[in-house]
Specification:
Layout: H1 2-5, H2 9-35, H3 42-84, E1 88-90, E2 93-95, H4 97-114, H5 118-133, H6 136-144, E3 154-163, H7 167-180, E4 185-192, E5 197-204, H8 211-222, E6 227-236
Antiparallel strand pairs: 1-2, 3-5, 3-6, 4-5
Helix pairs in contact: 2-3, 2-4, 2-5, 3-4, 4-5
Length: 238
């Protein structure tokens, strides 16, 4: 009977509108994710938005704006754990970050709706959809742009496969050639490469290089007796 006694038609209608707005906007955000065949699709984003709206609405009904503020902190942390579940790390590759960010934004959209800020909820959903849709061509354009090695902060390594008998002498020679080209060596790593051969990997201290200069150093090293192969690689610095 307490449930019937505490029933308030205007408040109930307000909650209904808030949850309906959250469901509609979460569905729009999730539909885009579903179309892209992402891990968290339509239902996930819709439920996240509805759940966030329900928590904020309940907090407001129990303790006004202060209650909503308190609940928001827990919603943010809870959605953070949910988003972490869609992030997949496979070696050096990480996927799912955009999907996790979208879930987070769906929660904010629902929170706006639950706090009776319908216009702001619509605005937030619009920005999320714009970010996931209209920024895609820009991402593809940047990814297709050629990389200027001289402007890229990266870790550069020069690899030389040498005979085991001349390993020490060639190690010193590699350091000498690189330093003569103004590329100081941070360290030299050694990797076993079968009988009679060792791969020397010179890790450069420089954060940017001229690709042509490193090509020339590698080509000169290959002309030296005892050097089977020389090349260089780079990867983006962490």
């Amino acid at each position: 009977m307490a449930a019937l006694a505490s029933f308030n038609a205007p408040e109930f209608l307000n909650t209904l509108v808030a949850l309906a707005i959250a469901l509609a906007l979460g569905t729009l955000i999730g539909a885009e994710r579903q179309y892209r065949q992402r891990t968290a699709g339509l239902r996930t984003n819709a439920l996240v938005a509805v759940g966030a709206a329900a928590f904020v609405d309940l907090g407001m009904r129990l303790n006004g704006n202060a209650g909503a503020t308190q609940v928001l902190a827990y919603v943010a942390s809870g959605v953070g754990f949910l988003g972490a579940g869609v992030i997949i790390k496979d070696g050096a590759n990480v996927s799912g970050l955009n999907t996790a960010a979208t879930i987070w934004c769906s929660a904010v959209t629902g929170a706006f709706a639950g706090a009776d800020h319908a216009a702001e909820a619509v605005l937030m959903a619009s920005f999320v959809l714009a970010g996931n849709t209209f920024l895609r061509p820009l991402v593809h354009l940047i990814e297709r742009a050629p990389i200027d090695e001289r402007a890229t902060e990266a870790v550069y390594r020069l690899h030389a496969t040498v005979s085991r008998t001349r390993r020490d002498a060639l190690r010193d020679l590699i350091v000498e050639r690189l330093e003569a080209a103004d590329y100081p060596v941070r360290e030299i790593e050694e990797l076993e490469r079968g009988e009679g051969e060792v791969e020397l990997v010179a890790v450069l201290s420089a954060t940017s290089v001229d690709a042509d200069e490193l090509d020339a150093v590698a080509a000169d090293l290959e002309k030296i007796a005892g050097v089977e192969h020389a090349s260089w690689t780079s990867r983006t610095a962490d």
